[in-house]
Amino acid sequence: MRTPLLALLAAALSFACGKSSAPLGAASDAAARVYIAPGQYDELYAFMSGGFSGNVTVYGLPSGRLLQQIPVFSQYPEKGYGYSEQSKALLNTSYGFIPWDDVHHPQLSMTDGMADGRWLFVNGNNTPRIARLDLTRFETEEIIEIPNAAGGHGSPYLTQNSEYAVSATRFAVPTPQADVPIKTGKFGGMLSFVKLDSVSGHMSLAFQILVPGYDYDLARAGKGPSHGWSFFSTYNTEEAKTLLEMNASQKDKDYIAAVNWKQAEACVAEGKGKAWSTPYAHNWIGEGGVAKSEMLRSQKVILPVDCPGIVYFIPTPKSPHGADVDPTGEYIVGGGKLATVIPVHSFTKLLKAIADRAYDGEVGGIPVLKYEAVNVCEVQNPGLGPLHTEFDDKGFAYTSVFISSEVVKWSIKECKVVDRVPTYYSIGHLMIPGGDTRKPYGKYMLALNKITKDRYLPTGPELTQSGQLYDISGDKMKLLLDFPMTGEPHYAQALPAAVLKDKSQKAYVLAENKDPYVTRSEKDVKVARQGTKVHVSMTAIRSHFLPDNIEGIQVGDSVFFHVTNLEQDWDVPHGFAMMGAGNSELLIMPGQTRTLVWVPQRPGIYPFYCTDFCSALHQEMQGYMRVSAKGSSVPLVWNGGAGTLK
Ligand code: K7E
Ligand code: CUA
Fold first, then answer.
1. Which ligand 2 atom minimizes the distance to the CA of 611?
2. Does the structure show a pLDDT above 60 at 5?
3. What is the mean pLDDT of residues 112-138?
4. How does pLDDT run across 385-406, given as a tens digit for each residue?
């Protein structure tokens, strides 16, 4: 989605429409709307997908100020995430340790269709995974791999009470996996339902539904009257395997799959799910803040022929991308990448069409409903390449349009476009705070743009991606702010700061630290050798480490630095870095223990130091390791605790 040609086309089109940036007179007004005075807080937290950075970023809105990066699927040296012994297991998969993925969709946990500020879920698009982030600590707590699928794109998209997170196959593959010729092999798709524990948020794979080998793209759950259903867009119903840009665009309509997951649950309860046994990893932060990993091997797979009534296909023009549900739960909006209209389906009509058996044939035991029996209207003149739709609190829908690089606002009731604004350039998703909930917050709309040619200072061949914030409180959308964003921002979600800010954790309670190598006071620091393993139980407090000098380390040892931060104040992490360690730093939160492994390679004296500026004497926060040749008789001695080295 970064073709220069598209950018040019986009630029040309928006020019041709006679739209340009806001005139200068409006600029100071816009500036005032997004200006947050020094020391003041933003109105909203926004959680942005980092795209191919593999992580999540947190911005304040309306200012667009970057507040935090939360590592999820990618190792992140700034926090030692995926490098420290405590965090590595979060990145385990059935293929081993995978230190990267591609995050597309953040989704806040919901209660009664409203964001409740407990957790944030994101999908890994490459090696299908779903992660759960805790929003009191802004940390990844759990990651589950999705078996029998490739490309977890239509994910995580929670149901209205966070009963399930879903994951849909983007790339059809043999299901179960098999060594077959690509051209003639039979491929399938999988719609996976991950159960979320209502108290702990813990994820478990409940069931999977085997569906035809199309590309499943995006999803949304029903709400209100349509609660109990989820909707998945498909493209490539042609089942092309080569040159998809052409071969997957043959048909006039693809589908939105409507899944009655309550009925699927009942079907599994009746024992109709088939037992499959593909390995998949489940990782979580366990006792003592240490990540644990288990390899699971059983799935319940439902074949639609065994459970009639759980899946229906709604014909939808043409390679739909988004499948978005309005705040009332009545309308399902398709976003046909190649369509010339925005189709709006009705949930009431869907139920009637099912009752009337208004079918146009079936595929693999899945009835295809008649388009006219489900569709209520088509929004005309939506621009070129409608993708995603979000909703405000006044009955309007906003659709991002990629090729013509604009957002169109349309009235749901009248099914017609009432306003349009250009974006700079090539918008993917858009986000309205609460725009997928029962009661959108409205007020702002954020365009998440792929291409920014000519918008910012050039930075070599790769330019930044960007968000553009619009005021949507009036009849006309107004551009307020451009700001650069990390990674490729696909989707984002936002909620009022008041929901989260007072729940933010300030430190880990040292007395409750259950890390197996915690050191709770300086008198307990020690160094212990077990063969070639040396365990250093170390403390950090402003402004020293103990022990700070250690002798008796030998080439070929593995030295485990278990560093406990004894601070109990807010915002006083200590860092720890060891010269020559093939690893990142550690960043240790107050009250927490983190472990770094160092394998010294050459005799000599090697310093370690604190990397996070923690006090006026931060530069004094250092120590030395003496490394001797293998088999040397230098005794193991250290400074501090019962140590003897002075
Ligand atoms: Cu449209 Cu992956 Cu949600 Cu990007 S996806 S734009
Ligand atoms: Cu501790 Cu700097």
1. 2
2. no
3. 98
4. 999 999 999 999 999 999 999 9
Helix (H, G, I), strand (E, B) or coil at 316: strand
User: Mean of the pLDDT values across residues 589-602?
Assistant: 98
Nearest ligand, CA 465: 1
- In a domain, residue 258? The reply is no
The domain spanning residue 577 has which CATH number? 2.60.40.420
For ligand 1, is residue 420 a contact (CB within 6 Å)?
no
CA-proximal residue: ligand 1, atom 6 (nearest): 428
Among all ligands shown, which has an atom nearest to the Cα of 431? Answer: 1
pLDDT digit string, tens, across residues 461-513: 999 999 999 999 999 999 999 999 988 889 999 999 999 999 999 999 999 99
Strands (DSSP E) contained in 458-588 are: 465-471, 478-485, 492-496, 526-530, 533-541, 544-546, 549-554, 558-565, 574-578, 586-588
Whether the CB of 618 sits within 6 Å of ligand 2 = yes
Question: Which letter does DSSP use for residue 243 in this model?
Answer: -
Ligand nearest to the CA of 427: 1
Helix (H) or strand (E) holding 417: strand 416-422
pLDDT value at residue 249: 87
Ligand 1: which of 2, 3, 104, 425 to mutate, judged by most atoms within 8 Å of the beta carbon? 104
Q: Which of 246, 281, 306 is the last residue of a domain?
A: 306
State if residue 622 touches ligand 2 by the CB under 6 angstroms criterion.
no
451: closest CA among 436, 464, 470?
Answer: 464
Q: Which amino acid is at 538?
A: M
- Domain with 533, as residue range(s), is 511-638
Evaluate whether residue 565 is within a structural domain.
Answer: yes
- Tell me the two tokens of residue 547: 């022990």
Q: Quick check: helix, strand or coil at residue 620? A: helix
Question: 385-412 b/e with 16+ CB inside 10 Å = b?
Answer: bbbbbbbbbeebbbbbbbbbbbbbbbeb
For residue 181, name the pLDDT band (cuts at 50, 70, 90): very high
Based on the structure, what is the number of domains in the chain? Answer: 2
Residue nearest to atom 1 of ligand 2 (CA): 574
Q: What distance lies between CA 559 and its chain's CA centroid?
A: 34
Provide the b/e sequence for 154-169 (b: ≥16 CB within 10 Å): bbbbbbbbbbbbbbbb
Ligand 1: residue whose CA is nearest its atom 4? 490
Q: Does residue 104's CB lie within 6 angstroms of at least one atom of ligand 1? A: yes
The closest-lying atom of ligand 2 relative to the alpha carbon of residue 540 is 1
CB neighbour list of residue 146: distance below 8 Å, 6 or more residues apart: 128, 129, 130, 152, 155, 167, 190, 192, 194, 205, 280
